[in-house]
């Protein structure tokens, strides 16, 4: 029995380490064109489970394993919100397993929201039981999208990196879901800091499982000039926000017009939104919708 369980765990570790992203392709996705703003959103969707109190972590815990029709109703509510944004970072998506009805939730949300480009990063492959994933949705064609595994004792955390605009001086969007462990976060943010070190226009988005002050003073991000927006982004839990775990951090070269927590309690996290202008001399911008 022990040997069988150990072999299953080792198989899961190997699967989790494989980069197996899938995407819609870019042939049908419009390029950036001249404009002013790009609307960004980051959202931990908790695999489509609606959670509105701590007791739901117990009473609805079975939905992390088995499908339920309410999940699709909740995904449709999420898609309604996403339809208002240009580029979206998603965390805690399922890439198509029993619990999601074998539906790739990143693809489902993109199609339901009318967003032409999607990219799914499979971070932890538990076969038919779960396909833990990050997601990127975009109205505009990225110059490049890459995925990376984040370091950690337990595999299953990843980052998606997308470039937009001028190839010589691009906007770099880095979308992630960090571990709970502070020691793992140190290693993961050290890796991210290396990824962004050569770029002037950077946006970090995602569920970082830490407050911005801690991220920017006690981790390798303290070597960057990133600014947390909004300053007090209390996004968790969604029914009584007390913790700032979800963030959009930006370079000072980017002009921010608005940012804030979006009051849209359909997950256990609230989404964070930001409306930003990129330097016109360096990056071509999308038209306003």
TrEMBL record:
Keywords: Endonuclease, Hydrolase, Nuclease. Residues 41-269 form the Endonuclease/exonuclease/phosphatase domain. Pfam families: Exo_endo_phos. It comes from the Bacteria. InterPro entries: Endo/exonu/phosph_ase_sf, Endo/exonuclease/phosphatase, GPI-anchor_lipid_remodeler. GO terms for biological process: GPI anchor biosynthetic process. One of its GO terms (molecular function) is endonuclease activity. GO terms for cellular component: membrane. This is Endonuclease.
